[in-house]
Amino acid sequence: MYTQDHQQLIDHLRQYEITSVAMESTGSYWQPLFNALQEAGFDVLLVSGSQTKNVQGRKTDVINCLWIQRFHSLGLLSGSFLLSDTLQELRTYYYHRHHLIEQQAAYIHKIQKALRLMNSRLDVAIRDITGKSGLAIIEAILAGTAIRMS
């Protein structure tokens, strides 16, 4: 769904004086619509798919929506735990930092592999090849400077 579709849905819900919406969390697809509904002032209940997966019969998106609507109108659904905006932002930073650290480790391993292919085991001689000494040696290698080891 795009922003225009979200607005059309919000207008449709308002036309029928709907104030509370339940929706299933599937992947990350629910997030933009969830945010749009909340910003529009709706009471939005985010439900885990595990609460509706045991519905009998043939499952389609339409049947699933009808079940969620029925369960919600009867008060049988409980909302998922959602982080506050501040905690969500911190979580995003944490996962981004974690990703950068993983990428850094992968690139360090690529550097070590390249050095091994050049018959140089700098990682054995120096504990941290990305430290001051390691980078100085790598820069010297890249510059073509002869390095004497004694």
UniProtKB/TrEMBL annotation:
GO terms for molecular function: DNA binding; transposase activity. One of its GO terms (biological process) is DNA transposition. Residues 5-117 form the Transposase IS110-like N-terminal domain. This is Transposase. InterPro entries: Transp_IS110-like_N, Transpos_IS110.
